[in-house]
Task: structure prediction
Amino acid sequence: MASNLLFRILSRELLNIPLPSLFIPVGYATIAIVTTLVCTAKFTADVVFRPNPPTITQPETYDFIIVGGGSAGAVVANRLSENARWKVLLLEAGDTPLILNSIPGLLSGNMYHKDTDWNYFSVPQKNCSYTSLNQKIGLSRGKSLGGSSNLNFMIYQRGNPKDYDNWANITGDKSWNYKNLLKYFKISEDYHGNFPDPLGQYHGSGGPLTISKLRNEPLVKQWVAAAEELGFNITDPNAEQTSTFSPIDTTTKNGQRDSTYNAFLRNAMNRKNLNVVRYAVVDKILMSGKNATGVVYIRHGKKIEVQASKEIILCAGVFGSPSILQRSGIGPRHLLESLKIPVVHDLPGVGEGLQDHVMTVAGPILLNDSVSFMFDDIISPGTLLKYARKRLGPLTFIVVSGVGFFSTSEPKNPDWPNICVFLSPMGMHASFAQDIARLFALERKLLEPYYNHFKGHHATQVFINLGRPESRGSVKIKSSDPDVPPDIDPNYYSDAGGKDIRAMIEAFKFIIKYFTTTTPWMKLGANPNKRHFPGCENFQLRSDEYYECHIRHFTGSSWHSCCTNQMGPDGEQMAVVDSNLRVRGVKKIRVIDASIMPIISNANLNAPTIMIGEKGASLLLQEWGY
Ligand SMILES: Cc1cc2nc3c(=O)[nH]c(=O)nc-3n(C[C@H](O)[C@H](O)[C@H](O)COP(=O)(O)OP(=O)(O)OC[C@H]3O[C@@H](n4cnc5c(N)ncnc54)[C@H](O)[C@@H]3O)c2cc1C
Result:
């Protein structure tokens, strides 16, 4: 009896011992090994047991073929297959997501694995990214059913109503204004909220996509109170925000990621009229003159043709969809001719207009109280066990806890902010430099002298995103071979007037002011550290030139790339799709994903893309009758 008690006390103590700092790098390596092993096993089983693609029609003709089962594709496949009379084929290059993808705290560990991530890198950036590996930006994209919703940070934001009113103005189609789009956001939202446990006690089920309201995460109270002191609105992130600071909402359910695979596809896959073919890499669309008739895809080394009687719907994402159009002979003539691809339709906008929320990280803002999230202290065998048993604890945490929107002096419009900032309550755990380098694909050895200096300090970091950039880039295939990745150039800070860099400098300065002049942060001794960011030693700290140097060195993507098949009105030369999302100049092809945005919205893009999926599906239902 006594020995039993002693054993229980001892084991409880042991469970609470923090794992050595080495645990985090070892954790990354373990995730990489497990991902490779599981994906190889799944792939091999598929080759052996399902060498031929499953089919539900003979001959293989479907009403609709959907290419890509990501954030938008999962929604479209779900809605179209609700009509039992329609035969729907969904072709997806990846497989079902791994269990590892469902654990929120593993988000950066799950990135950059070639089996589950397209692992794109940009071309070297001309105006920034001096701390990135070869000046190339890491541009992860999910490669599995659920697409990038399996890799994203799970932050759920609809965006500013003015973003969508602007889309309606650009396209000349009122159906794209916020008032008319709201129903497409709401149709998939199932809100759950206000939880007492600081590390996420999630409740509730039902609804297609579960959105959890996190209100008690570390440092979020200070985040909101300090902003209130400066006169900001304190509202919900999705309360049609203007300038506001608030806690975040996340697409999580019971402590797990709620991907679009989970929310929209998993159950729909049981329908007899929906055929989901995995490991299917779509090469191109088959054309008869200007009419699309089907697609060619490659599966386990075989080329397979399949026909669609109604439409081909591209949901392959911001990089995949323009690449497929270009390989199919639909795109800028000079590009297609240079690659000897027969031109079906000269459409100069395909792949042009790429936008993203370029990002930098301000920090560490040192704190003199033990309030931040120190991975070294809180990851213990007990916390891992707690997640395994109850889906609670640090593994439910997604690295950021608060969001803020505000406007800089250009365009100075508090109702339509151009900056979005995120609070990351991460303290300076031992492997911080390595972790941040991994997340943003930066040169670790450049960062180590800077971040290692603060090892063990409580601190916070702020991710500063340019919400309404002017710079635009492009996506261009380099070959007609679908295995060759395209050239992706986000072309950050390339706008002629230099507005983008000026806005980021002003935002950085505002963040420093916010931490150093507001009572809640002053009480915690908030101190933007006084070391120079590597490469910026020649500039005076806190001068505009210094901030510019920091921003141009530490450049990251927010992974919000979009706008490479822009929607636009008749007569607009660069418009790729009309406001019904039909590809211009050809018949029977639609694009429904983040690539159709005419201009980026100042919000994380998963919610807007899911909305585009719902709106796109409703356009198809209207056109073809239900
Ligand atoms: C690391 C990361 C963090 C992010 N964080 C957030 C966040 O916190 N909140 C937020 O709102 N947004 C976030 N985003 C952005 C958001 O997830 C994406 O904008 C959104 O998922 C894009 O949806 P999509 O349908 O356009 O493309 P995807 O979801 O990328 O789907 C495209 C699908 O098409 C498939 N595909 C591509 N090419 C082919 C082909 N040739 N043949 C067959 N299949 C193909 C892909 O495998 C994929 O499944 C993040 C993204 C990433 C990568």
Notes: Residues 430 and 455 are 6 Å apart (CA to CA). The radius of gyration is 24 Å.
